[in-house]
Amino acid sequence: MMTDIIADSLTRIRNAAQRRLDTTTLMHSNMIEAIVKIFVDKGYLESYQVNDEGNNKKTITVVLKYDDNGKSVINEVKKISKPGRRIYQGKEDIKRFKNGYGTLVVSTSQGVLPNDEAFKRGIGGEVICSIW
User: Which residues pair with 48 in a beta bridge?
Assistant: First the structure.
């Protein structure tokens, strides 16, 4: 059994982008769906779709995004908070990432948010992953 499906999903996205695949399939959870939605809203992924496999199993099909030269728009996607070591940041610490070019995904008391939205709302939380 897999212990960290968020890390597995980020690795699948990273590997598919390196191989220049059009789509990849992720296991479904509400947290992963929220992270993928942030990636789509920020322009790192083209789109996603939740598929019902039956027997109470769901998957997420993610369409990757590439620039005009065929290079992935994702330079790096990295898991920050791990099961053995959780990383929390206050509202002051999550203001900017990569000088505004990157995005931190933060799990807050108001849901899973990108770092700029969490800063606007004045809340901190657990930093799940980063992407730029």
Answer: 62
Classify domain 5-131 by CATH number: 3.30.1490.10
Position 21, amino acid: L
What 3-state DSSP class applies to 17? helix
Q: What share of the chain is helix, strand, coil (3-state, %, to 5)?
A: 25, 35, 35
Quote the tokens at residue 117: 């939205």
Domain limits, the chain: 5-131
DSSP line for 101-128: TSEEEEEETTEEEEHHHHHHHT--EEEE
What's the token pair of residue 52? Answer: 């019902």
What is the distance between the alpha carbons of residues 11 and 68, in angstroms, rounded to a whole number?
24
Beta bridge partners of 126: 88, 107
pLDDT tens by residue, 41-90: 999 999 999 999 888 899 999 999 999 999 999 999 999 999 999 999 99
Q: Is 68 left (phi over 0), alpha (psi -120 to 50) or beta?
A: alpha
| Single-letter code of the amino acid located at 122 | G
- Which pTM was predicted? 0.93
Q: Which two tokens stand for residue 51?
A: 């598929």
